[in-house]
Design goal:
Blueprint lengths: L2 H4 L7 E16 L4 E14 L2 E8 L4 H12 L7 H11 L8 H21 L3 H5 L6 E6 L7 H13 L4 E5 L4 H15 L4 E5 L6 H12 L3 E5 L7 H10 L5 E4 L6 H9 L5 E4 L6 H15 L2 E4 L3 H9 L4 E7 H10 E2 L9 E2 L11 E2 L1 H4 L6
Parallel strand pairs: 4-5, 4-11, 5-6, 6-7, 7-8, 8-9, 9-10, 10-11
Antiparallel strand pairs: 1-2, 2-3, 4-13, 12-14
Helix pairs in contact: 2-4, 3-4, 4-11, 6-7, 8-9, 10-11
Length: 370
Amino acid sequence: MTEAQTRPRAVVEQLDAAAYTIPTDAPESDGTLSWDSTTLVLVRAHGGGCTGIGYTYAGPAATRVVGTLAEVVRGGDALAPTAAWAAMQHAVRNLGRPGLVAEAISAVDIALWDLHSRLLARPLCTVLGAVHDATPIYGSGGFTSYDDTQLTEQLAGWVDAGIPRVKIKIGRRPDRDAHRVAVARRAVGDDVELFVDANGAYTRKQALGWAHRLAAHDVRWLEEPVSSDDLDGLHLLREHGPGGMDIAAGEYGYDLPYFQHMLDARAVDCLQADVTRCGGFSALLRVAALCDARSIDLSLHCAPQVSAHAGTAVWHLRHLEYFHDHVRIERIAFDGVLEPEPGGVLRPDDTRAGTGLQVKDDDLEKYRVA
């Protein structure tokens, strides 16, 4: 018998979606935004006696888009998630693909790949085509709303957990940025890589000045020093910033042309992409191929429990953002979460099918908003 004759036959029978708004554990802000809650949009794909889990971080209205997408994928081959992804891309032409629609597609695509893997009784990382056995991570948070004590405790906690890379937010109050970076460096010591993220808070000339000041603290990564839409500004920073400091952006990419434009503009030293925004695993692997063609690294943005699997399949992988809010939410939402290992990696469990996650419905229900 051929593999096609022996593989399980199943169709996508149903999609379910729900949204949960979970308060932060303290007020949070970065260079351009403040927030006190985060919404998880959870999608479940059913077929062949199995259920796949996918999610994104988006507004509750994404659940309505998932309802539209359900009509597109229902009845399709549960072992062909990429075909469903292509069908969804065509179906949303008049909805406006970037933003909320792309986030909904991402959650559905992740759920369909998880379903595919569970039907095959194989771990998702293997089905995606792993080239690494683990995904390096960096601790991320360091919000501008934190005082020095909160900042120090969070950063030191990541270092104590064996994570050798950490990132803080800057840009909300430039008069305090130098102080906060100095506090961060003292908290982690000289042997830990220190990253900063301005979330587009600076002008081009401000950012260029700050890049040279940050170099004095051995900052290795400057993320979104200007708006990620300002490709010329990012290119300026990349060309004229200090040696040893990478310029990074890309987390707000919702489709392949966005990443193509950023790479063509030579705007970044390391591209970023978010699997829960860019179109799911089907799209992320295409973004990774764009990086492979240029020998440029890709860094994955947040959603660590699904991004850890994606990272194993990215050839030119740099690392994954182990973001405080998402780490906390995913521990609330799921059993089977991956925890950091010494050296700062997340290692998918090759004994579990799919992502290995199970939804903790009882714990989530009190946060449900849609």
